[in-house]
Design brief:
Blueprint (H helix, E strand, L loop, with lengths): L9 H14 L1 E5 L3 H13 L3 E5 L23 H12 L4 E5 L16 E4 L4 H14 L2 E8 L2 E7 L4 H10 L10 H20 L8 E6 L4 E6 L1
Parallel strand pairs: 1-2, 1-4, 2-3, 4-5
Antiparallel strand pairs: 5-6, 6-7, 7-8
């Protein structure tokens, strides 16, 4: 794999790592502000197998943070996101679920190598963390609130710690947001996914990385 589209990232991942990226299956729960940036970064890096889940449709307040949608397009978010991915990576294979993640639908992520949690509501993220714990899946969680954000990487053995952290955040679903901050969190979430699926690994497993984007500081705490 000499030169070509991925030449600049090959020194980071190596040819073997790039092949792993291209062969990995990534589950994405939520195609909102976090989700659309995350899939963009992953598709640009070569991820070619996605499973998308989102029951929503674009609304006017989404446009400032979810740059792939337009009010003139009435399709479900998951369908529009799938088309966006194929525009970036025409060889991508995408499974689309226009329904929420739940115990009844959790089998949709059964073949995923890693799951990215881009769900906006805490209850949905709690269900996803519980599934990751039971299924042995690695879960990368992202959340943005104003000029603050978190990215957490939970292996099955510490997904229960993520659940506890999410339970403490209950009641805070309605949060202010600005597109630049949401995209910053999603980009870091995507980078964690790439480090995991490429095999180079991440030092952030079992940690919550908290971002203060007003002061540009980072703090890490254990799950």
């Amino acid at each position: 794999m000499n030169g070509g589209r991925f030449e600049r990232q090959l020194p980071l991942f190596g040819e073997d790592g790039q092949n792993k990226i291209m062969n990995a299956t990534v589950g994405v729960a939520g195609c909102g502000g976090l989700g659309v940036t995350l899939v963009t970064m992953l598709a640009e890096a070569g991820v070619s197998h996605f499973i998308l889940a989102d029951p929503g449709y674009p609304e006017i307040e989404d446009i400032s943070t979810q740059f792939i949608y337009a009010m003139s397009d009435p399709r479900p978010k998951a369908q529009t996101t799938a088309q966006w991915i194929t525009a970036i990576n025409p060889l991508a294979e995408i499974e689309v679920h226009c329904e929420p993640f739940s115990k009844e639908t959790e089998s949709m992520f059964g073949c995923c190598d890693v799951i990215a949690d881009c769900i906006e509501d805490i209850e949905g993220s709690l269900l996803l963390a519980d599934y990751a714990c039971r299924s042995g899946k690695t879960l990368v969680h992202g959340r943005a609130c104003g000029l603050e954000g978190i990215v957490a990487v939970a292996a099955p053995e510490n997904a229960s710690g993520l659940k506890r952290a999410l339970e403490e955040a209950r009641g805070h679903d309605e949060q202010p947001s600005v597109g630049a901050a949401v995209s910053a969190v999603a980009s870091l979430e995507a980078l964690e996914v790439l480090k995991i699926v490429s095999g180079i690994g991440t030092e952030n497993v079992g940690l919550i990385v908290s971002l203060d984007m007003r002061a540009m500081t980072v703090e890490k705490t254990g799950l």
